[in-house]
Fold this protein.
Amino acid sequence: MKILVCISHVPDTTSKINFTDGDTKFDVNGVSFVINPNDEFGLTRAMWFKEKQGASVDVVNVGGPETEPTIRKCLAIGADNAIRVNANPSDSFFVAQELASVAKNGGYDLIIAGRESIDYNGGVVPGMLAALLEANFVNTCISLEVDGTTATAIREIDGGKETIKTALPLVIGGQKGLVEESDLRIPNMRGIMMARKKPLTVVEPTGSASQTETTSFSKPAPKGSVTLVPADNLDELISLLHNEAKVI
Amino acid sequence: MSVLIYAESDNGSLRKGAFEVASYAKGVADALGTTVTAVTVNVDDVAVLGSYGVSKVLKVSDDKLSKFQAKAYSSVIEQAAKAEESQVVILSSSTDSKYAAPLLGVALNAAVASNVVKLPKSTSPFVVERTAFTNKAFQDTQLNSAIKVICVSNNAYGVKEDNVTAVAEDFLPSIDAGNLEVVSIDKATDKVSIADADVVVSGGRGLKGPENWHLIEDLATVLGAATACSKPVSDMGWRPHSEHVGQTGKPVATNLYIAVGISGAIQHLAGINASKVKVVVNTDPEAPFFKAADYGVVGDAFEVVPQLIEKLKAFKSAN
């Protein structure tokens, strides 16, 4: 089985979010970047397929040279090959088309993407990619088993979960549950050394079109201060929630 | 040329999100000088959609659509959009709608904007405001495609009543389920889901162990709320991952979010930030959650929550 894991290079979850260039660009100053958490769950599941079922695992990222440390980390975790599409990931449709091109060229059976990236939270790249490839698609995937060309996946739904039988080629939008947090791997020195020698192929974009552009960013208005209610006067809390906040 | 919505349902009943999507769509339709058409799947009674601004309903009834299938459903919506020559197609931000939206976007060669929180700032060019960086920012996005697909954030625009008469007609699209079979659905029918809830009660490490979760559940029951938890709680296996709210878990955009024994890590706060009113109960007055909350009680959950439950019961029976 040939697996492609799509990796997004995103600000660490603790990052302060600021904008620059007249509030049109994310300010990367002082921000550390990581593998998108939803992608990392998928990558870790891919490692399981590699070790237990002999799958090969490639990773792909659409981004500039600045994303290479994140890509190398994927190789250090255990991916075999990496591909970087040398382009600014301008919007979801652009990224999905570029990923589709890499996926078609590589003849992958299973493509694992994260349900959404934690930066722009679009959540549409996996679905667009599946549609462009005319592959089966399971989103919000929390469990995946593959037997030959048959796949059994569990999808999280609002208020529960759903078990799905489908076939390869398959695209999933993965999230926590594919593996547990405790299954995530911190690259060891051997992995890091080996990652330096693994192929990281840079390909130029195919000239895909974007459909959207960001005109500006803004931040939520600062919050007013909290109203504290004494623990021995909960009637006041109920009164505030009823009369002031009008939520009960 | 009408604005098309997919009015989501569950077992034949329209979901709350459908009314919010209809309300939002009416606002878009007014700005564009057109009307709202809804497409429904296996819903008998659709007249109520008129109360939220829908003029026309395309009713699809087919046993092949008894379970949600993203490909089949997106194809139904696509066919409806083509029949209506819709330039704007609007869905909710439910798990199912976000599953179908990108498939629909590719089929219609349409840009997709998810997590949209406000009516378009302008319709030519078409610019919407959406949340990004897990509610830490807003992003104004211009959609340059001829057809636009929008997923409206839950609970952001709200439900707005209207008094349009919804004219229903049967719609018979071709149905393609693709090579994907839903084998089983495991869903608690007696509990409200986090996505549909008006109130969410959430517990953190301050609860000290899963055996104390009855406090959270009882408080949720009084309020008709869904239950949720912080990341450490799901990582330790006290509660299922499906209840984990926060940046890598589920986003919560509810009217009232009550956090019990949750300190308020930045990732948690990001995930619940879109909720309208936040209440925190925590022993530590320095807990970061107090900076993000509207109302706070400094106190021990094991003392505060049982009292709160009793007082809320009394309040509920009196009101």
